[in-house]
Design brief:
heterodimer, A: 123 residues, alpha/beta, 5 helices, B: 391 residues, two-stranded antiparallel ribbon
């Protein structure tokens, strides 16, 4: 299945995401903020298939991390997770090749479907 | 001028009268001389001269009297005109500030907080003007404090609903995890987890509703209207609600008038309005009730009505039915479990679409909630019809 990099500043949310996504058969890497995301990718190794980034995190937000990654030429599909009711309205950054928005509380069935669509054909 | 004229006239008249008296005196002396000596020719001439002189003087007096009368009349007229001018000036200098005050008060009343008047004119109008400006300053201060409180409240609701969402995500997510292994749980445990999930969903609805209202208050709730066919949308929402209704033995009928014109609307928001109205009809009506959704064109609007034959709403509640946290009969709400915000949100959303929402209800005879949205302007056929009507 897919290799996912999930970033959220809440450990409970990270645990929940890891549990649910691993149950669906995915490999899950976690990061507690945007800085860890960029560090992890900069450290090399196989790139994740999908990034799941919380829009608002201390130190470095998911949006800022994604901006850096895109500038560095990393074109991994990215989903932005947000506690805003309508994530699209709240952030709406342009030019970052965002492949979708996920609202909290997370609808995991829909999320798994989106991940499947994004990774389709890459396997 | 006239006064001087009159004084001079009186003075001159005295002179004339003295002169006339002198002619009499001289004439009398001449006549006495004539009586003593009828042949005194000088005396006769004097009598004639004095009489002529008197006539001349009397003529002058009457001329002067006329002139003086004219002068006095002219003076009076001039005085009257002057008084009128002065009076007009006084009136005008009072009227102007008063008119300004009336105009500024009107602006203030209609919400222009910058409405002030230029203080001036008579002491009284200036005092009035100053008092008005002070009152307007005070109102502006209070209004800006209120605005600030409103902003704080909106910010608070936005932040709170955002901050609450993360822990709620965890609670709901882990409860769902438990439910994924429901075959390992006892029936009692399953029921417990179901209660947790129910309450999570309720909290999410509440947060979403609060957020919508806070955004609406802050003017940040925006809709993205597009040409929309309401018919299929109504049928779709009804389809998604039917199972819930049928679970309680309620019927849900849909009646869409064929050929409904399009409206400018954001489908997701119309769906939200309809879900709110239908949820109310479903939850407040007893088992076996019949619920209807009707869509039809009325004039230049499309009306969607949700009709139920439930218990109806008493008049005192009907008045506040679109207010926040106003909910039906307490006995029912225990079971119903809505947020009390559904209708307030429906109204906000209908307003944003430039439409109107209304309710008709009588206790024991059910309720009808309906909203109307303006038909999309200038859609070819429609514009043609309007033009034809205009002719």
């Amino acid at each position: 299945m897919a290799r996912l990099l999930v970033a959220d500043d809440s450990e409970t949310i990270l645990l929940l995401m890891r549990t649910r996504l691993e149950m669906a058969g995915h490999e899950v890497l976690t990061a507690c903020d945007g800085q860890e995301v960029t560090d992890l990718i900069a450290a090399g190794g196989p790139l994740p298939d999908v990034l799941l980034l919380d829009a608002m995190m201390p130190r470095k937000s998911g949006i800022d991390a994604l901006r850096e990654l895109r500038a560095a030429g990393v074109d991994v599909p990215a989903l932005i997770v947000s506690a805003h009711q309508d994530a699209r309205d709240a952030n709406a950054p342009t030019g970052l090749a965002i492949h979708g928005y996920v609202n909290k509380p997370i609808d995991f069935d829909a999320l798994l479907e989106t991940i499947a669509e994004l990774t389709e054909g890459s396997e | 001028m006239a006064v001087l004229g009159v004084a001079r006239f009186i003075e001159q008249r005295q002179d004339f009268e003295d002169a006339i008296a002198r002619t009499y005196r001289v004439e009398m002396q001449a006549r006495e001389r004539l009586a003593r000596n009828p042949a005194a020719r000088g005396a006769r001439a004097t009598v004639l001269r004095q009489a002529a002189e008197r006539r001349r003087l009397q003529e002058r007096i009457s001329d002067d009297t006329r002139d003086t009368a004219l002068l006095v009349a002219g003076g009076l007229l001039a005085g009257l005109a002057g008084a009128l001018l002065l009076y007009g000036g006084v009136i005008a200098s009072m009227r102007r500030p008063l008119e300004d005050l009336v105009e500024a008060a009107g602006r203030l009343a209609s919400g222009d907080r910058s409405a002030r008047v230029a203080v001036g004119g008579f002491a009284e109008t200036a005092t009035l003007g100053r008092a008005f400006n002070e009152m307007a300053d005070e109102l502006e201060r209070e209004a800006s404090q209120r605005d600030q409180l409103d902003r704080l409240k909106d910010e608070f609701v936005l932040t709170a609903s955002h901050e609450l969402r993360s822990p709620l995500t965890s609670v709901q997510g882990f409860a769902e995890l438990l439910m994924m292994e429901r075959d390992k749980l006892t029936p009692k445990q399953v029921e417990t987890v179901e209660i947790i999930l129910d309450n999570c969903r309720h909290l999410v609805r509440l947060l979403n509703d609060l957020l919508d209202l806070a955004r609406s208050d802050a003017g940040r709730l925006v809709i993205k209207p597009e040409p929309t066919d309401l018919g299929p949308l109504v049928e779709d929402v009804a389809r998604s609600m039917r199972a819930r209704c049928e679970a309680r033995g309620q019927t849900l009928a849909v009646e869409v008038e064929p050929g409904l014109p399009q409206v400018a609307a954001e489908p997701a928001r119309i769906r939200q309005i309809l879900v709110n109205l239908l949820t109310n009809a479903h939850e407040y009506s007893p088992e076996g009730a019949s619920i209807e959704v009707k869509a039809r064109a009325v004039d230049a609007e499309v009306e969607i009505a949700v009709i139920d034959d439930g218990p109806g709403i008493p008049p005192e509640q009907l008045e506040h039915i679109f207010d926040r946290f106003v909910r039906g009969d307490a006995g029912l709400t225990q079971r119903v479990g809505g947020t009390g915000l559904g209708l307030a949100i429906a109204k906000s959303l209908v307003d944003l679409h430039g439409g109107t929402i209304a309710v008709r209800s009588r206790v024991g005879e059910g309720s009808t909630f309906s909203f109307r949205l303006p038909v999309l302007a200038a859609s070819g056929a429609q514009a043609g019809e309007e033009a034809a009507e205009a002719r």
